[in-house]
Amino acid sequence: MDGENLEDEQIVNILLGFLLAGHETTAHAALWLTIYLHDHPEILQRVKEEQEEIVKTRPQSQKGLTLNEIRQMKYLSKAIDETLRLYRIPPMLFRKANTDVKVNGYIIPKGWKVLVWCRAVHMNSEIYPNPKEFLPSRWDNQKPKAGCFLPSGAGSRTCPGADLSKIEMSIFIHYFVLNYR
Length: 181
Fold this sequence. Notes:
The protein has helices at about 10-40, 40-55, 65-70, 75-85, 120, 160-180, and strands at about 90-95, 100-105, 105-110, 115. It is mostly helical and about 180 residues long. It has a single domain (about 10-180), classed as CATH 1.10.630.10.
C-alpha cells in the first residue's frame, strides 16, 4: 500500500485475518504437540515433571499461571519449538525480491515472487540431524542460524503473534498434562 490510505473494507479484512489466522494456527500446533507427546511417553513424562515442579514451588494463595512460570518451562518450550519445526502452518512463505539476489549461483531478479518451502528447510538433515524424529533435546544448546527455523516467518514479516502463540500452547499443555491421562 506504500503510504496509501486504506478503505474501511481493507481494514476489516486485515483485522479479521489477524484474529482468525492466529486462532487456527495455534490450535493446530497445540493439537500436533499433544499427538507428539502421546507418541513419546518419555518426553510427555519430562514435560509433566516440569509442570509439577512449577506447581510445587508456587505460593498456595496463587491461582493460575504467571508469565514468570511460563518462562520457567524450558523443556516444554523445546517441545513446542520441535513441534513447530516438524509441523508448520502454513508450510510456505511468499516473498518478493526487492533487489537482484544471487543464491547458489542463480540470480533471482528484482520483482520476482519467491516461494520459501519451510518444510524443506526444517527437514534438512544438514541443519537438523534425524529431521523426521521428534527430539526436543535437539534444542538444548542450539540457536538456529538466520533462515534455518521459520515457524513464524522471518525478518520484518515475522508473525506478530508468534510469542503469544507459544504462551497459549504452554498454558494449554500445562493444564492438560496435569489434569488428564
